[in-house]
Design brief:
The protein is of the alpha/beta class. It has two domains: 172 residues, Peroxisomal Thiolase, Chain A, domain 1 (3-Layer(aba) Sandwich); 147 residues, Peroxisomal Thiolase, Chain A, domain 1 (3-Layer(aba) Sandwich), CATH 3.40.47. Helix content is 30%, strand content 25%. The protein contains ten helices and 13 strands. Helix 3 packs across helix 4 and helix 7 packs parallel to helix 8. It starts with a strand and ends in a 6-residue tail after the last strand.
Length: 332
Amino acid sequence: MSKINAVITGIQGYTPDYILTNDELATMMDTSDEWIMSRIGIKTRHILKGEGLGTSDMAVEAVKGLLEKTNTKPEEVDLIICATVTADMPFPATANIIADKVGIKNGFGFDINAACSGFLYSIIAASKFVESGTHKKVIVVGADKMSSIVDYTDRSIAPIFGDAAGAVMLEPTTEDLGIIDSELYSDGVGRHNLHQKAGGSVKPASHETVDAREHYVYQEGQTVFKWAVSKMADVSVDMMHKHNLTPETLDWLVPHQANMRIIGATAKRMELPPEKVMINIEKYGNTTSGTIPLCLSDYEKQLKKGDKLILTAFGGGFTWGAVYLKWGYNPR
């Protein structure tokens, strides 16, 4: 019996309409376009505006577009996994909310929280259901409304993040395509350097936590930067070596869009030319779980069936990893 692989058969991204520019940020805090571009490489980021709108609303738009592109009915979906750190609410899972909003009734869903590595963790979890032969159509969504946990008085954090969603469809194949290998890691020591201080069971929301501004992203930038540069590069180079990939035979690097310097350092270690590195950080910023599917969506028309891709990310936790896959279809 031929081995079953999980292959991406469709991709759809979504970004909200409102665009927050560096110039607008400069009216809110001591910063400038030059300062942000030179240190992070971000010019604009999309922000979800509107009363009562959350992560699921962006995810729904991505999933609706994905269903249409893949000619899939909601009732055909077996499983939906949502990677997010900004769930609509502590429970139920945002995946369940998305499923209800788009009409997925014959499958099940759950969330994965691995910060910026969440999409990688989620597609690997999803791939196991497909590879087992029990699930035929699985949707993975990476979505975050980071503006809901960003302090717009903190110039070390506010310029970095944006809001977005991206969704992929995974289906079984016996061709030499799809997800070939993965290396996923975590080290809990990083929980001290990048986290949200309040809002969980250890420190529930209170007047005191709100007044102390503890419901926003807390990051020790230098420590996180050093770990990210090291771990994303290490795991990506290791994946190349494991599969005898060279800068000539690897078609694309799809890096988490956190910082241009991190992306550049990873590509340099892999000896990849710039034209083989997917980059859209200047337009969207760091959308956490949304960066990698949003990159794939933006570059979809340049991808060809059989292209060899390495996806890599680093996030709070600390979490990091790389996924090696072969693209499943030609441009539509």
